[in-house]
Write a structure and sequence with these properties.
The structure holds 2 protein chains of 2 kinds. Chain A is α/β, with parallel strands linked by helices. Helices cover about 40% and strands about 20% of the residues of chain A. The chains are: A alpha/beta, B alpha/beta. Chain A: Keywords: Oxidoreductase.
Chain lengths: ~575, ~280
Amino acid sequence: MDRDSLNWKVAGYAGEGIMTTGLLFSKTASRHGWYIFDYPEYPSLIRGGHNTYQVHAGKNHIHSQKIALNLLVALNRDALEFHRDELDENSLIIYDQEDDNIDIEKYNLPGKSANLPMIRLASEVGGERVMGNNVALGASIFALGLDLGILDQVIADVFAGKKEIINLNQKAAKAGYDYIQKSGVRPLIGVEPLKPTADLAPMTGNEAIALGALAGGLQFYVAYPMTPSSSILHFLAETARMTKIVVKHAEDEISAANMALGASFAGVRSMVATSGGGFCYMVEALGESGVSELPLVIVESMRPGPALGMPTWTAQSDLKFLINASHDEFPRFIFAPGDAQEAFELSKKALVLAETYQVPVILLSDKYLSESRYSLKLPETVFKNNRFGFENNPKPDTNSFYPRYRLTETGVSERSVPGQSGGIHITTSYEHDEYGFTAEDTNARKSQVEKRFKKIESMKQEIPSQFWEEEPQAKLTFISFGSTKGPIRQAREELKRQRVATNMLNLSWLWPFPKDQVKKSVESSKSAVVVEGNYQGQLASLITQETGIVVKNRLNRYDGRPFYPEEIVNYVKNLSI
Amino acid sequence: MLKTYPFNPTWCPGCGNFAIWASLKQGIADTKYPKEKFALFYDVGCSGDMADFNQYYGFHTLHGRALPTAVGAKLANHELKVIVIIGDGGCYGEGGTHFLNLMRGNHDVTLLVHDNHRYSLTTGQMSPTTEKGTKTKSTPEGSIEEALNPIAIAISNHATFIAREFAPDIPRLTQRITQAINHTGFSIIDILQPCPIFNPKQSHEWYRQMLVKLEDENHKPNSREDAWKQSVRIDKLPIGLFFQETKPAYHEQVSELKEGPLVNKSIETIDIGNLIKNFR
């Protein structure tokens, strides 16, 4: 085991508190001053089924999960069964021989194993069965050479206000720590403890999206629950008392999107979130946002489909759908943040640009980004917002209506909102004239279509430089979008160690498409490979559509799992370039 | 041809929409509330076409979706008076889920349902309120479904202002509209509306024989049970106020709106420092 990072996993039945256990470990590692990336896997049910949570932590920036485990906490027999391939001769397995009457020899696992009577120790300190997780947590702290005091503080903070629970959890952790110490296990040589810090905040992509939206002046959030987007709803609802935004759980996704448009019409910044299936329901409203020129931010967190698909797993297979969703044409922005930091920035930006251009903005996430935790460092926590596109003193034309859809140089016309005198107009889903009155004559139709598309030129100017890293003499360039950024960055660190020079371009702006930079990047080395989480190579075909370039090398995953850095490294090594 | 604003109505001669339109404008005026503080949400259909004939802030929405759109606007600015102009198809068919849920929430919006028992803008197919057995373009052998009873549903599902009126009686409808707008909470007026083109059978004459005024039946609008009995009558079609009660509206129960309308909340400076702390 190197001294720079550690990889820990807990596995057991769903519904046994594994998510909380994982969070406690992530926070503990983070407060040691380490970067973390954590990644939960769980089936779509409330009890039973196999549930895992892994934390990859290290001294330097950690970009993704990885396969090879330093420590596996096995809470049941399946956990010993399913993770064999992630262990090696240096791994440590902690299991409970008594609870499940386990014969560890039978599993023939590589590495060392240590029996830890989790359930008995938990009950000895007065805790229930689920408290066994904390016994395992305490044992993990010892085995990885971490500071039990920091775990105690994390427990106190996470369960703040629940004195009895804090006390029991801390006792259970101490019992695990002491037991494993006495049993003769020697701490694995882990990362050197850094100076404990409060700077790094372990945060899921969804939490970063929610915070970014708040920073960007979100006022109205409305959603219908759908995995893996629901935690945005939970977070914003939970914090609404502090943030004073209005959060509404609507009766369905159609209602959610239309409520958001109604609120937008009345002048507030609105957002909705869903997954692919729910987004299908919202598509007509997306088109309405396009034709009525009402700002709307839609977060779409992808999971494998079509239809119900695999609710709790990840995919990047909605890209082409999103670019083309709705009948007819209108300008839109589509962003795909690559990590929590970008999720925060782009979510904030989405609200600003939706209002500036009076267009829909889709923020594309996926289960992997939405529910994994990253170490987020925000240099500041106070954000300024301006308002765009409102006419503060609307004056009606001689026909006594306000020309809300006035033809302008930029294609953006200033809005009035209900309540303002002098601003009366119709906002409408029908094709219309400058006042919003239904129009079917060719002049009105053509001029309004052209008005809407005039925005595209300035929208293109907004495209920032996309995430790009290069090395001298690179023979291969990785091209990817969204959350695949992490595994590729992690893989490139290993490739660097092996002296394989590569470049990488990760797109977080998918529409308007950053054509020039993509073209330049693909041509920067002898070969390029598009790495993406879908079967047909949707980004690859988009690149061809937009640049004419055909990228032949493809690394695709469509099994619901994220890319692992190890598989990317292996792919590159087997590629003849 | 020079356009005049707003447009002149494109409804057929004898359409009940003319009377509803007149009652609406007078009903709004009679509230004495400033005109620009009204926001009207128009659904799709002959009724929704009214968007182009009016002079209020309006939003011509998607089919069935005038209901949630209106709720969004009300939550964004609860100082607005929010009215939904919708037909029986949009409200009870395409937007049925929204119809059920708006009344559960007691959202402070007024629904004026132009109920002519047909899809008239699409040339006369059956609607959710079409009587069973009716032959229409989409049901040439007679419709199989029973007619939906919106009044009985509203009474059973927590609506706080439930009325039915007959479009051609303009003075009566006008008063009812003013009353509905002034009601805080969910209000619905199911407005019976002749459609001489696609539903000639339910003519003025037919209605005159069927209608009975609730006040003439000694009905008091304070009991859901009595209201429900009136709503399921088959001998007569009662019009008037079935039921009204005072309960807090949705926006009055949202604690975040206690300090005033959301649209007035400044976003100039946002401090998320306290929220970030909990993540560490």
